[in-house]
Model the fold of this input.
Amino acid sequence: MVGTSDNVLIVGAGFAGLGMAIALRKAGMESFLVIEKGDDVGGTWRDNRYPGCACDIPSHLYSFSFDLNPEWSRMYAPQPEIWEYLRRCAKRYGVLGRVRFRTAMQEARWDEDQRLWEVTTRDGERIRARVLISGMGALHVPRWPDLPGHERFRGPAFHSAAWDSGAGLEGRHVAVIGTGASAIQLVPQIAPMAGRLYLYQRTPAWILPRLDFPIADRWKRRFARVPGLMRLFRAWLFWSLEIRVAGFLGNRWMQVQGEKMARRFLEREVADSQLRAALTPNYAFGCKRVLISSDFYQAVQRSNVELVTEPIVEVRERSVVTAGGAERPADVLIYATGFRATELLHGVHLAGRGGIDFHQAWRASRTAFLGITTSGFPNFFMLLGPNTGLGHNSVLLMIEAQIRYVVSCLKRIERRGYCAMELRPESQRRFGDFLRRRLAGTVWQSGGCRSWYQDAETGENPTIWPGSVVAYRRRTRRVEAGDYLWITASN
Ligand code: N01
Done:
């Protein structure tokens, strides 16, 4: 049992949770605890270990702004390196010892009398804290398609985010379901070892080449010697990605240019016109996440790889059947089918003021102010909450803006002697209206596709920030006192 002296409870030890813990230490707020469901830090970079797993944002930008790393081996560092970077940060900034592993939050209740969060873990332990911060992320609960007969399958079957390295793919019939960001990274790696690989595609993606290369030692040395140079490089990366946002927000000219580049790439890489047609999306460039890969198209054209575009209708003991009745053998089944990205705080019961249920409140409003705070849930903050994902730039920039915002909130509470702060319902409504207006014209909502950014039932987009990183930073720079109710011991 953690005493109430632990002011802040952070849930999750990925980029968001660790970044938050480090920021609290830097702000002199030492009274915090991090709980983590896994047995190590790293979040998504600990979980995703499939062959070829790497970041699709350049590493010099996909890292903390306060800990630039001159040692990145490549433009797009592989997963083990990113994971190692995070572990190093946890140690370097003295937060590793503050993480309690194998501790998953199951329930949290706001105790109105005590003005505290009472958290229950999956093991039944109780933890009390004044402030609750979710760093649980959005891409950690695997999505399993409900394929008829999947339970009958006899061979190893696993999700890309829970890679079974003992499955033994050599010379076997391997079925990969999905052609999203994970699949296009893992297929080129496993295709050479599989006997035959069947790639089941429901919707093709727009793909651009990945300009990946090793970073030369002399550049690593320069970056280490002159940190300003590294900052300059990072700034260049930032702006070259940031300008692309205009296309996503509705600039047709930029969308057309993007589409032209992707079409040219596809034409250059794939000679067979039938295969090219099967790999060509029928929706606007950017509607689904634009993927980057320089080896996926090559892998699909290997003689032992078959792209299957008919929908799967049944999984049998050792095969997959598609519409039309074709049955293809399968010894191993790999689900590269993504995550339940629109289901916030999946598997957690959160009860706010007056016992209101977070999931019910969410269904009614579908917004969180700046993606961070929600009315009815005092002293509760989300990192990488709704509508703060990005399609065009490094999401770490969003996480860091949120962390700064939360620290400002906590400082204000401390300075003024408040017990808690709670978002005013009208601030939440205003922000929700703004989001809906902004999203309406974006390619994500009007580009003619259905994507994991959208809620499967309503088609609404609770995932993406409909603006630039610069605009988000501007909005989160200051905590506007008027957006919140500030609660004292007596009111
Ligand atoms: O998941 P996805 P992902 N039958 O949802 C298909 C991040 N990430 O794990 O498009 C057949 O993109 C589905 O088809 P459709 C990144 O943000 C980051 O690949 O829905 N297919 C789709 O093709 C990324 O965007 C990195 O029609 C089925 C695929 O499965 C996010 O994670 C690296 C199906 C799922 O693709 C998710 O990527 C990797 C069915 N029944 C991932 N059901 C970085 O480098 C689903 N599909 C930072």
